[in-house]
Amino acid sequence: MMSSTGAERTAKCVFLVAFCSVCQALQGGMLFPTESPSREVKDVSGLWRFRADLSPDRNRGFEQEWYKSPLAETGPVIDMPVPSSYNDITQDAKIRDFIGWVWYEKDVWVPARWIQDRGTRIVLRVGSAHYYSVLWVNGVKMTEHVGGHLPFEADIGSVLRQSSANPCRITIAVNNTLTLETLPPGTIQYMNDRTRYPAGYFVQNINFDFFNYAGIHRSVLLYTTPNAHIDDVTVETTFSDNIGLVSYNVSVLGSSKPAVKVTLSAQDGRCVASADGTRGVLKITDVNLWWPYLMHENPAYLYSMEVQATAEDGQTDFYTLPVGIRTVRVTNTQFLINNKPFYFHGVNKHEDADCLSPHRKTRFVFQIRGKGFDWPLLVKDFNLMKWMGANSFRTSHYPYAEEILQMADRHGIVIIDECPGVGIKDIRSFGNVSLAHHLTVMEELVRRDKNHPSVVMWSVANEPASEMQPAGFYFK
């Protein structure tokens, strides 16, 4: 374990970056990367090179600038699958319980046409890394992100075009230290009894009932857009009798006066409504509503909305997203979906799952992927929920992968979308730094998930110390 001075330095580093990040307004939307006539997506997940910084203060990687050269030149590296948590991949207890900086690296071939076409944006997106991440491309720092469970990205085209070198080298440093200002919060406890613990020994204390898995938990993607591109889309829906109304708001960057056309199609491909402009309302006759599972004979009906934005130079960007038309309303006694009472008959989920050995003589439970995204596990979970008649779940205790919400949209499973505010028990976590970070996380969460018809509620915390007196949030 690192020394107490080193641990304090690590915790302080996370604290300072968190404080700086929340002082800046969030930039841009969080549209899920999809392919279209104007966009391409390249998944660069798989095996990455990995090294944990085992130095006493966990800071050697930054002192020696590991991001400036191939990671293997800095010391021994191992294979690490992405997405996955690194904790249970090896047989090394030091890796399983590691607190501090770990380093990931992969060489990626970028299509030459992407680099040669200066009208193309090249974006690198990390679906989730726990907890605090710094990203470099070819040794150049591109961005950093505070908080796990939510995506971050950077436009890397300018760096790639500075050099003809291909493949490009992606380096990501991830620190899983939890402090009183992180979400979820945690504390470092130093064990100073030298009769029982070695010098500098410490533990990461947490106030939640699940393992603090760490690493790059979701896919790492490269995707392209035109320079003038659709940055964000906001959809709100309602209906009256058999008429559905879809209000939309499109944000376009890189063009001062884009021509925007929005088209809504039914599942059979028929165009049912269209409009021009960055804002507008689509009117659908004989609307098919989005209903929860077991609440209607045709649940989870999704329309397809195509947004087309053309810049002054003729460059056109296309983005398509599913749209479920439904309403949510709460009275003093009922929760209503489409004006009908909805009863939450569901579960609290987690993104990790234990596996049971099938061998009759060695019945043991083991965990490998941690919180790494896993399609077979996701499909099995939804089959289990529908088999037992569940119609909803809460994303306890953090935001889940976007693919999980998309699955819920398609199957009519209602979601209570929870932020990572679990275990906020210490009075020292009730302060302006924590509040500002919490607000940033909630903004990222809502911006990412606002268009999912399955999401009907936001959960801002789980079992906080709400019994305490108001902690005196204030703004200067």
Reconstruct the topology from this structure:
Elements: H1 4-22, E1 41-43, E2 46-52, H2 60-63, E3 78-82, H3 93-96, E4 101-108, H4 112-116, E5 120-126, E6 129-130, E7 132-137, E8 140-146, E9 152-155, H5 157-160, E10 168-175, E11 186-190, E12 202-206, E13 215-216, E14 220-226, E15 229-240, E16 243-253, E17 259-265, E18 271-276, E19 279-285, E20 303-310, E21 316-323, E22 328-330, E23 335-337, E24 340-341, E25 346-348, E26 355-356, E27 365-366, H6 375-387, E28 392-394, H7 402-411, E29 414-418, H8 432-449, E30 455-459
Parallel strand pairs: 25-28, 28-29, 29-30
Antiparallel strand pairs: 1-14, 2-3, 2-4, 4-10, 5-9, 5-14, 6-13, 7-8, 7-10, 11-12, 15-16, 16-19, 17-18, 17-20, 20-21, 22-23, 23-24, 26-27
Helix pairs in contact: 1-8
Alpha-beta classification: alpha+beta
Instruction: State mean pLDDT (0 to 100 scale).
Output: 90
CATH structural architecture of the largest domain: Sandwich
Which bin fits the share of residues in helices? 10-25%
Strand order in the sheet with the most strands: 3-2-4-10-7-8
CATH first level of the largest domain? Mainly Beta
How many domain units?
A: 3
Q: How many beta-strand elements?
A: 30
The shape, in one word, is: globular
Q: What do we call the CATH homologous superfamily of the largest domain?
A: Galactose-binding domain-like
Task: Tell me what portion of residues adopts beta-strand conformation.
Answer: 25-35%
- Total of DSSP H or I helical runs spanning 4+ residues: 8
Poorly predicted ranges = 1-25, 471-476
The CATH topology name of the largest domain reads: Jelly Rolls
Q: Please give the oligomerization state of what you see.
A: single chain
Alpha-carbon distance between the two ends: 39 Å
Q: Biggest β-sheet: count, sense, barrel?
A: 6 strands, antiparallel
* Rg value: 24 Å
Signal peptide: 1-25
Pfam families: Glyco_hydro_2 (PF00703), Glyco_hydro_2_C (PF02836), Glyco_hydro_2_N (PF02837)
Organism: Labeo rohita (Indian major carp)
Function: Plays an important role in the degradation of dermatan and keratan sulfates.
